[in-house]
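Example 3.2
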Amino acid sequence: MTDCSICIKIKSESMQNVIEENKSAIGIASGYFREGHCSVIVKRHIKSISELSTDEYTDIFYIIKRIAKALEYKYDTDKTYLISIGDQVDHFHIHLIPKHKDKCSIGVYCFGKLFEAEGEQKPTLEEQVSLRDKLRNIISSQQ
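Structure, written as tokens:
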């Protein structure tokens, strides 16, 4: 895709914030939201995790694990948040944000805002089982 800002950056080969790279993905220092914020970007232009090949999945999560371990060591924390939304940039990538001990949980922001906007969903066990069955059927029909 020629007008994708992420594809343009990847092809320019002038990214100076690359932490680690392999044939399918690039891990970069971003720093947008919190200190230590990084991103892992799939090199191929895709919009959703469901489009990843098995090799791409393995490659991207290899980099995610290595950067997450480094973040957890650097910030003395035992958790790194993984977030993939893709509403502003239509190129699949995952944000890695360390859970700083002195900062609020990101879940409070994400789910709090969602509950505020849409109300908390409380599906019954029957509804959960129905969804499970429908998804299992879809998955088995795609094999």
